[in-house]
Amino acid sequence: MPDLRVLAGALLGRETGYAVTACGSECRPVVFGLDFTGVIMTVSSEVVASYEHCRAVARRAAGNFYRGMSLTPEPKRSAIYAVYAWMRAADDLADDCEPGDDSADQLTVFHEETAAAMDPAQPLPAGPIWPAFRDTVETYALPGEHLYTMLDGQRSDLQPVSCQTFEDLYRYCYRVASTVGLTCVKVWGDDGDPAVAKLAEYRGVALQLTNVLRDLAEDAERGRCYLPVEDLTRFGVTPEQIRLGEGGQSFTRLMQFQLERARSYYEMSATLERHLEPDCRSTCWAIMRTYRVLLDRIAENPEKVLHKRVSLPLHTKLAVVAGAKLKRSWG
Prior knowledge:
Blueprint: E1 6-7, H1 9-12, E2 19-20, H2 45-61, H3 64-69, H4 76-95, H5 103-117, H6 130-140, H7 144-156, H8 166-188, H9 195-214, H10 216-221, H11 229-235, H12 239-243, H13 249-268, H14 281-300, H15 314-325
Antiparallel strand pairs: 1-2
């Protein structure tokens, strides 16, 4: 293969750039930093464009995750963006569902496209995410089990949701969030300790429990109530009260119970970072810390989630990223 040495930074914008050169039969993306420095590797123009599309999706839609993901060194950063873009596409199919529409059929098609993209013997599906997705799956040996389980979780969102017990809610959290953590760990790399899988599972549950509390009012409007019926009954709160934004002492006690449960899963997954490759620990920590601070913000005024989506100001997010950069090594 001839040495192309194509620098496409001017086309892709100042934040990322790509270089292409000969290095055997391997074709891997490298996204450079602001000054376009980095190791030059070969990559096809199709894969370059796909990774750039995935980065743009992450930057536009990842919210609290984006700044944490951006701490990942290349080429793992581009791989994480590709995983996120795939998950965002699936999540959008579920979130955009309206009664009577064809979202279930679309998710079935997306499942089939995913299976094709994971099989190098099959042609790639049409769409900008798939070249980067296939490259990432092949490079990091991502297991289809986690990805397909996540799609099962998204499919469950196509119908009104009601969790009878915490076991039901845990199962949902595992499907839509723990699978994300388990997939990201495959990209970040770990020390091989058998405990890593359970730690990643717990971390995903902690993050999703935080999401459930943050999105309580929004989900209620969609006919979804992820808080277990057994908990609602225990504290004397109904889904209709949540939908109408009715707070009070019973709701506050319910929230305090849910907040403490979420905190426990952050604690149970607290050692996850020390098992990861050192250059990716700050990414995992930043994502965790952002959501942990968000949980604390919800705890300051639990009734606020009934009326608006609680979020973090930019200076708080930047402080988390700065803290993550100081924690690039763990004892």
